[in-house]
Amino acid sequence: MVKAVKFIDKEKKGSLNFNISNRDRSIGASVSGYIAEKYGENGLKNTLSLNFKGSAGQSFGCWNANNLNLTVDGDANDYVGKGMNGGRIVVKNESDYSKENIETVLVGNTCLYGATGGELYVSGSGGERFAVRNSGANAVIEGVGDHCCEYMTGGHVTILGPVGGNFGAGMTGGFAYVLDEDRTFFDKCNRGLVNLERITTEEMQPHRKHLKEILEKHYKYTKSNKAKELLNDFEKYEANFWLVIPAASNIQDLLKATTANAA
Predict the structure, then answer these.
(1) Which of 63, 134, 114, 124 is nearest to 90 (CA)?
(2) Count of alpha carbons within 13 Å of 178, Cβ hemisphere only?
(3) Which domains does the chain have, with CATH numbers?
């Protein structure tokens, strides 16, 4: 915190490196609080990057502020990005084991709970209740447990691996891209309030473009082997993606919003 304050007070761009252990909880919260107290909801003008190596404890990056970027090379416990407002959180693992085992779990349960903005990139799988009550954050993850996107009202989530049951229960806003290579997602999705669409039709061209841009950003930040595989043969994999959209949403309005956000 002391090292970060110098950059925050002078509004200078900076990057700091730390080791982290699972005894270190709510990392980033005090920094974000200080930023909010000093500059309000708009956060920093210049980017401050905090880079960690090891295993983060609970609530890594909670209430993350705008232009505060947190990266952990290792893994993290539950509640990553809880209530995050902006900035970027990256959880990756550069070990040989993680790179060779796509379904390696890198984050715990209930990540992005109540998030209102920002971005999260995870080059591995997560636990249950991912993005519950998310109202504005955008995320990429390579597998999730049960109840993903439950009560979600905004933002978008891209899942590049298997999902658990009860996906999208109570989801009334935002949208999700889900890679369904084993063709089991239809029965795992709670279709009470959402519709499922393919992205291969002509009218879905903006979504295909947007999805490729998401994959490119995911690879840029995590060097994910899965993202690289999908980008190298996107035409092969695009037919395996579902677009999950709340039934009350107009798909044409969603496409316009997607195009505007991607611009």
Answers:
(1) 124
(2) 26
(3) 2-262 (2.160.20.60)
Q: How far apart are CA 160 and CA 4, in angstroms?
A: 34
- Gap between the Cα atoms of 119 and 128, Å rounded: 19
Q: Which of 69, 50, 90, 89 is nearest to 224 (CA)?
A: 90
Instruction: Pick 97 or 59 by higher pLDDT.
Output: 59
Buried b / exposed e across 58-74, counting CB within 10 Å, b at 16+?
bbbbbbbbbbbbbbbbb
Residue 253, both tokens: 């309005």
Q: How far apart are CA 160 and CA 157, in angstroms?
A: 10
- What is the Cβ-side half-sphere exposure of residue 26, based on CA atoms within 13 angstroms? 7
pTM of this prediction?
Answer: 0.94
* Cα distances (angstroms) measured from residue 100 to each of 63, 115, 201, 220, 228: 32, 31, 34, 18, 13
**HSE, side-chain direction, 13 A CA sphere, residue 144:** 35
Residues of the chain with pLDDT > 90: what percent? Answer: 84
